[in-house]
Amino acid sequence: MMDAVRANEILNSEQEHDVFFQGKRIWIREVNSERSTACIFPADEPEDEMTVPVSELLENHS
């Protein structure tokens, strides 16, 4: 489970991070810290943008 602070760290990082939403690898476009939401899109479908709670994002730490 992720929080808005970590989502912002990933968004602003120069490194690539493996982040998943409902089993799909995603990219974070924007984070709303006040609402604890993130604007995301699947790595293979950049036009399929959606806003989700950051708590539903998972980071792979391999």
From TrEMBL:
Induction: Expressed only in the forespore compartment of sporulating cells.
Keyword Signal among record annotations: no
Keywords assigned: Sporulation
Spans traversing the lipid bilayer: none
Major location category of this protein: other
A Pfam family it matches: SspH
Top-level division of the source organism's lineage: Bacteria
One GO location term (cellular component): endospore-forming forespore
Subcellular location: Spore core
Single GO BP term: sporulation resulting in formation of a cellular spore
HAMAP family for this protein: SspH
Family label: Belongs to the SspH family.
Record's protein name: Small, acid-soluble spore protein H
